[in-house]
Amino acid sequence: MDTTTQPSPLEHNERGAGRYAPSPSGDLHFGNLRTAVLAWLFARRTGRRFYLRVEDIDTQRSSVESARRQIEDLAALGLDFDGEPTYQSDNTSAYEAALRALTDRGHVFECYCSRKDIQEAARAPHAIPGRYPGTCRDLPDGERERRRRELMAQGRVPALRLRAEARRWRVRDGFLGDYSGEVDDFILRRGGQQPDWAYNLAVVVDDAAAGIDQVVRGDDLASSAPRQAYLAHLLGLPAPGYVHVPLVLGPEGRRLAKRDGAVTLRQMRADAPVAQVVSRLAASVGVEGCDSLAGLLEEFEPGAVPREGWVWK
Ligand code: GLU
Questions:
Q1: What spacing in Å lies between the alpha carbon of 125 and ligand 1's midpoint?
Q2: Of 28, 35, 55, 199, which is best to mutate to test ligand 1, by the most ligand atoms within 8 angstroms of its C-beta?
Q3: What positions does the record give for the motif labelled 'KMSKS' region (predicted)?
């Protein structure tokens, strides 16, 4: 895979766009807000449009109320977006079309495994940790029929997985450089009683439909980028350039979480004006003594963003 054909996320592109894509499963905390601000800074300083997409396909964890509060918080911080927020739950026909295109080309198979089946297979001596072991990839039709009926009798449907032909894929990342990672037979649509669309499929379809050519997000998602770029390739869609930014860490060195104290914007605003929160966010991306987003945009330098996790204090 030649990454030079992928857009450079750090270069100016007035026809391009960036985005922030939170999952509405709780209030945004300092780490989420910092990623949102970084995504906004990268987009705006390179002349790109900037969109807000609510990633609410996980019906168990998403809520309308949480989306509303997140949008309110981003506005309170002063971030501006182009157009209205979009919701993944409104876009399921596009996911269906993508799934159909993949199915027509033989890139999809049904998987009947439970989480436990996969964990057990992954303990086999030659298994690669975290990788789908391929249990259902090459089952004979009769066996598929039997396993499908078994699930249906329990009111469940099989998961749908990608039949990946590549083992690795390379992406272009403004921070990590040319980044190559593993591709496996990842899930496209979840199974069970609630067949939700899977994150990787939805992200790829939505980013391409919105003309997103710059994806700035936390580096916990870096290992998803090769899968997503490979899926874009199979669908004949352009892959974006990425900037995976280090996360904010809590006092114990783990990813910042709500248990680490008054970390949500709402909690912080109870003690301090928004300008003070902006000033902490600015310091965390390498700009001291700046308490407005407009000022931050002027002074921001990608090279000054700490490349290690930033510890919340
Ligand atoms: N919705 C994901 C999250 O909140 C982010 C997905 C992405 O930026 O690609 O972690």
A1: 33
A2: 55
A3: 255-259
Residue nearest to atom 6 of ligand 1 (CA): 21
DSSP class of 29: B
Interior CA angle at 85 toward 83 and 88, to 5°? 130
Residue 105's pLDDT band (cuts 50, 70, 90): very high
Q: How far is the CA of 22 from the centre of ligand 1 (A)?
A: 5
According to the annotation, is 258 in a ligand binding site?
A: yes
User: What's this model's pTM, rounded to 2 decimal places?
Assistant: 0.95
pLDDT tens sequence across 194-232: 899 999 999 999 999 999 999 999 999 999 999 999 999
The verdict on whether residue 279 carries a ligand-binding annotation is no
List all residues 6 or more positions away from 272 whose beta carbon is below 8 Å from its beta carbon.
none
Q: Is 266 annotated as a binding residue?
A: no
Q: Is the pLDDT of residue 118 over 90?
A: no
Please check whether residue 117 is in contact with residue 135, taking contact to mean a CB–CB distance below 8 angstroms. yes
Residue 151 half-sphere exposure, CB side, CA atoms within 13 Å?
Answer: 19
Give per-residue pLDDT as tens, 236-271: 999 999 999 999 999 888 999 888 888 999 999 998
10 Å CB burial of residue 308 (0-12, 13-18, 19+) is exposed
Extract the tokens encoding 286.
Answer: 């390498």
23 in a labelled binding site = yes
Pocket (CB within 6 angstroms of ligand 1): 21-23, 55, 203, 217, 221
Q: Which atom of ligand 1 is nearest to the CA of 19?
A: 8
Q: Which residue has the tokens 């857009």?
A: 7
Strand order from edge to edge, sheet including 108-111: 108-111, 159-162, 187-189
* Cα→Cα distances 24→45, 163, 223, 251, Å: 27, 30, 22, 25
Per-residue model confidence as pLDDT tens digits over 272-286: 999 999 999 999 999
